[in-house]
Amino acid sequence: MIPREILKKVQQIQIRTSHLVTTALAGEYVSVFKGHGMEFEDVREYQPGDEIKTIDWNVTARMGHPFIKRFVEERELTVMLLVDLSDSGSFGSVDQFKKEVAAEMCALLAFSAIKNNDKVGLITFTDKIEKFVPPKKGKKHVLRVIRELLYSEPDFDHPGCRHQTDIRVALEYLTKVAARRTVTFLVSDFLATGYEKSLRIANKRHDIIAITVTDPRETELSDSGFIEFEDSETGEILLVDTGDSKTRKSFKAMNRKREDDRKALFRSVNVDEINITTNESYVDPIMKFFRKREKRQ
User: Fold this and answer.
1) Angle between helices 4-23 and 139-151 (to 10 degrees)
2) How far apart, in whole angstroms, are the C-alpha atoms of residue 197 and residue 190?
C-alpha cells in the first residue's frame, strides 16, 4: 500500500503543476510539439482551385473523373519520460533531493501533454530498467506516473548493493518498446559515460530532449575544512580538504570540463538540453527552452 504521505505529496504536486500548466505553459507546449505530419483521411471529387498534386490517380482512373486526397494533421503525440533513479538522485543540499525536483518537473510536462490530448509513458532506470508504464491518456494515468516516480524504489539484487547509472540501457529499451516516434524527455544528472552511440541512434527515431538535474554542491565546493565525501553510486569514500584553494579550483575545473563535454556531445547528436538546479525554479528553464525551440522552428 502506498504511504499516506506519498499520496499527499502527489496531490500537492497535482495542484501546483496543474496551475502552472494553465497559467505559465498554456499554448507553449502545443506550439512547440506539433504533429508529425499529415494523415490521409479520405477522397473527394476534384473542384476548381484544388492542387493538381493532391489528385488520387488510382481513384480518378477507376471513377472516370478526378478525385483528390484529403489529409488532416496528425496531432496526437506520445511523450515518454525516461527518468534516472540511480542513487545519485538522492542528494540535495537545498530543500529537495534531485529526484524530487525531477518528479515535479516530469509532472509538469505530463500534465501539459494530457491537456493537449497526448499520451504519456514512463521508463525508470538505474543500471537496468526498473519500471515501464506504457503510454496512455488521461489525468488518472498521469497521477499513476507521478506515484511511480515518488514511491518506486529500485530493486535490490542483494543487500547493500548500489544503483549506478546506465543511460545506454535506457535508450536501447526505448527503441524496443516505442515503435512510433516519441517526444522523449531524458531526465538524469548524466554522471555516466558510454551512452553516446545509443543516444545518437535513439535521437534519429525519436525527439530526445535531455534534462540535466544538478545540485550546487556538485559543481563547487565551499570552504568548510576537511569533509568526508561518499560516492552514492559506488560507495567510495574520500577525505577532502575543502579549505585548500587549489582543491576547490581543481574540483570546479573538473566539473566544468564534464559539463562542457556533455554539452559538446548533445550538440554533436543534435539533442536539446534543459538545465535544472535544485536551488532554482524548474519552470523558467522549461519556458526558456520552449520559446527557443519555437523561434528555431
Assistant:
1) 130
2) 15
* CB count in 10 Å sphere of residue 194: 9
Closest CA to 103 of 53, 150, 159, 61: 150
pLDDT at residue number 155 = 64
**Chain CA centroid to CA 219, Å:** 22
Strands 38-45 and 67-73, bridge-based pairing = antiparallel
In the structure, how many helices (H) and strands (E) does the chain have?
Answer: 9, 10
Which CATH number applies to 4-32+76-213+273-296? Answer: 3.40.50.410
Helices 196-205, 167-177: crossing angle, 10 deg rounding: 20
- pLDDT tens by residue, 76-97: 789 999 999 998 887 777 778 8
Average pLDDT on 149-164 reads 65
Domain boundaries, the chain: 4-32+76-213+273-296, 38-73
Lowest-confidence region among 3-12, 62-71, 137-146, 187-196: 3-12
